[in-house]
Write a structure and sequence with these properties.
The two termini are 37 Å apart. Strand 8, helix 8 and strand 9 form a beta-alpha-beta unit. This protein has 348 residues and is α/β, with parallel strands linked by helices. Helices cover 28% and strands 20% of the residues. The longest helix has 13 residues.
Length: 348
């Protein structure tokens, strides 16, 4: 789950491979593009754009989960490969992803897992090809690099949510069915869990940082991965957007530094609303103490005077929303919810 190692590798990959795929990397997105929804019997592609999978059973479980949805499965040529901690070389992993977008039989692309390494692929992706073949891309955590780059370069709506080898419990499966098969205009509101021995519910609670309602397109994902793209052409425009963030195993002092980066690059001053999911296992280390996440929000988010809340079911948690990156939503910070305003699928 440690993604800090890949930050330096991103710059190396961009410098060492400047010519591959860059014909699309300088082009501005030509408006928002929507993928087609899924139907039972469609083919989905399984790819591994980030870390290698340590157990072959995980690859089998990813296939079985998609088949349990009534879908056919096609695997990337190198999706079970390994190159160091990565699932194959950069060229192999990017080649698998490009091939899935080019394959007319494949209607959606599901990432087997996250980890680290997806940012190394960004100079190698064929954005013109992706723009011409819009389709569902699903994954989270390190897959934030792909969501951000594809949104910035093509305008395609992609989906931040459960990975193929992840937990397909009832909640996550219901999210998949309602969004991709039924094409619902989803309302994302936490499922509050009542415990028998608690006077008031404690789990899955949201906290209003500043009340109000805001509308805009969603942008964001994993905080560490997103901020590591600062200064590159693979970050989308933040103007008027609803920024959603999550992270895992990051000490608060590092979370503070990443929010500082977002502030210094001007991103925070452009957004219309803010939604924070879960920062799983983000505990202070030993030493003289630490800022809390609440204090970090007070320093960076509350002064923006925009609707903001924390605690959304987004992130490295057992039950998580499938969030359309680039989808137009209305968020209600007082209610701790957001809802789709427009379809995120084409009519095809």
């Amino acid at each position: 789950m440690d993604r800090r190692r890949f930050i330096g590798g991103t710059a190396l990959a961009a410098a060492a491979l400047p010519l591959i795929g860059m014909q699309g990397a300088s082009a501005a997105p030509r408006g928002r593009r929507l993928p087609a929804g899924l139907n039972k019997g469609d083919t989905v592609g399984l790819v591994s754009p980030s870390s290698a999978t340590s157990e072959r059973l995980s690859l089998q479980l990813a296939r079985e989960a998609m088949e349990a949805f009534g879908l056919k499965v096609k695997t990337g040529e190198h999706y079970g490969a390994r190159y160091g901690h990565l699932a194959g070389t950069d060229a192999e992993r990017a080649g698998d992803l490009n091939a899935m977008f080019a394959d007319k039989q494949v209607k959606a692309i599901v990432c087997v897992r996250g980890g680290s390494g997806a940012a190394r692929l960004l100079p190698l992706l064929d954005y013109n090809l992706i723009r011409a073949n819009p389709k569902i891309l699903l994954g989270y955590s390190d897959i934030t690099a792909l969501h951000s780059a594809i949104q910035a370069q093509t305008g395609l709506v992609t989906f931040h949510g459960q990975i193929g080898s992840g937990t397909w419990n009832r909640f996550n499966a219901d999210q998949f069915e309602r969004l991709f098969f039924k094409r619902e205009l989803m309302t994302y509101r936490n499922t509050v869990v009542d415990a028998d021995d608690e006077l008031v519910p404690r789990r899955n609670r949201t906290l209003t940082l500043r009340g109000g309602v805001a509308r805009g397109e969603l942008v964001g994902g994993n905080l560490t991965v997103l901020t590591a793209l600062a200064g590159s052409p693979y970050l989308p425009d933040f103007s008027g957007k609803i920024l959603f963030l999550e992270d895992v195993e990051e000490a608060p002092y590092r979370v503070d530094r990443m929010f500082s980066t977002l502030k210094l690059m001007g991103a925070l001053d452009k957004i219309a609303g803010f939604i924070f999911g879960e920062c799983t296992d983000c505990k202070p280390g030993d030493g003289y103490g630490s800022l809390t996440l609440d204090q970090i929000f007070d320093d960076y988010i509350v002064p923006l005077n925009i609707p903001a809340y924390s605690g959304a079911m987004i992130g490295h948690i057992r039950e998580q929303f499938i969030v359309p990156v680039g989808g137009k939503v209305e968020m209600d910070a007082d209610a701790g919810s957001f809802r789709l305003l427009e379809p995120v699928f084409s009519g095809g």
